[in-house]
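Quick entry between incubations.
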Amino acid sequence: MNEIERLDYKIISNIIETGSNILDLGCGGGDLINYLQKTKNVRVQGIELDENEIYKCVAKGLSVFHGDIDDGLKSYPDKTFDYIILNQSLQEMIEIDYVLEESLRVGKKVIIGFPNFAYIFDRIKLFFRGRAPITKNLPYEWHDTPNIRFLSIKDFKDYCRKKKIQILDNFYLGENRKIFFLPNLFAPNAIFVVKK
Amino acid sequence: MEKKNLVNPEDKNIGIVETKYVTFDDPADQLVLESGQKFGPITLAYETYGKLNKNKTNAILIAHALSGDAHAAGYLQGDNDPGWWDNMIGPHKAFDTDKYFIICSNVIGGCKGSTGPSSVNPKTGKPFGLDFPIITVSDMVKAQKKLIDYLDIKRLLCVAGGSMGGMQVLQWAVSYPEMVASAIPIASTMKHSPQQIAFDEVGRQAVMADPAWNQGNYYGKEFPEKGLAVARMIGHITYMSDQSMEEKFSRKLKDKDYTFSFRQDFEVEGYLRYRGDSFVKRFDANSYLYITKAMDYFDVSGDKFIQWNKKYDMNFLVISFKSDWLYPSYQSREIAHQLKMKGIDVTYCEIRSTYGHDAFLLEVADETNLIRPFLEKVNSISEKSSKGLK
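Done. Structure below.
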């Protein structure tokens, strides 16, 4: 998972312009915002639900807000942030429509990274072994996974079309390189930059 | 879920400390109270721990809660119990006395060495009693500011405190934002809810219903012990949680069976009576009235707190506790939210605790894990900016 994360950090850091004002929804232990703060001159803030992750963020000297998305986004004026980041957190969210709508309202652009459930190795495991796939991008057993949404790159594109969300850019990620050929089949991870 | 304990087990105590007193008796030093009344001279009791650095940039003010005092850490000569936040203040602790200069003062209106209703009124030569003026949290902070000026400190690295201490922290940010580099309000609020005012009022009524209270004029006579003890018992219930009381007492009995009387059958009854009785030995009933009223008047909500047009250079760490029903987390979250909306750097954490409001004195490991790195961050920012100034 580490290599993939590092590649997605690099990609996200490249997307973001210097001087941006960024909110990371579901920032976890703050690795990404810490990386962004170090690599780019940006103002970052995280929101995280897990108390233990908050301690990790504070230990890194980061500013975090303990709470759910509701606490994080409500009453912010439109387009407060240059970027809202939802990296590896979308698949764990219950209120997808609400979270995305609010992110698109409060952020000028939204960066979304998620594991592609249609990745060939996931398909193989499900098809040949008849078991829910446990792979590098989906490293959990069915009973203890935080993931409640299993979506593919195609699914996400369909969703954007339906909701009239504009896709500004997309990146398909292998373990340590970008994937250009049949991404829905060969890319275990995807990053989209969207706006409304 | 498991929590990691990052606190160093070899943490030391700061040893013997001494309470100091300073009196501001110049007529020019009179406080203009929030009520408009002029008041003075005033005396403040205070303690300091650690060393003030050369540039005087490492000072941290600790503000105490309702029944607290200036003695926050270490031991007073001949005393068996350390200060009220000793587990947080000392070498390698959250407020590290090897790095920072810690100041704690008793609030005006109190009864632990600072001028309060039990002090002698210089005009009459007798204790003030109800002639003491009504004071507010902003008046307490105004008095503290005199102490900080007296210590010749231009800017505090941090102001921190829990409960009423948290209110003073917020008031510092409101009254003297240029003097505060960072602030840590814990288990606190921008204003008392009607429920909080209601509990305070019940406590005050208990004191005033005691015939010995005698309109506040009881000094040298019988003390309104019963009333103040009841007030403290009510208070103490609100400091715990349903779960912490269940864990501590359940329905345990003091003896084997019910006595079928109004004696103390249940352990929790005995505990509350003990708490009430020990409180009256160390606290003045009139101070209780004045300080609870000050808390009820406190209100820095809305634009009184952070104004849109002002530029603030402050960092906030806001902490609350999950089982605190006296100062519920939503009030702390609102503080953090207001700060965030106005572009002020803020970290907010709701610590998972079953101790209720008392958690701010008990959840030492978790608070330390937040406060220590937070102070390191603001200290390095302040060092950078002080170098930049040169």
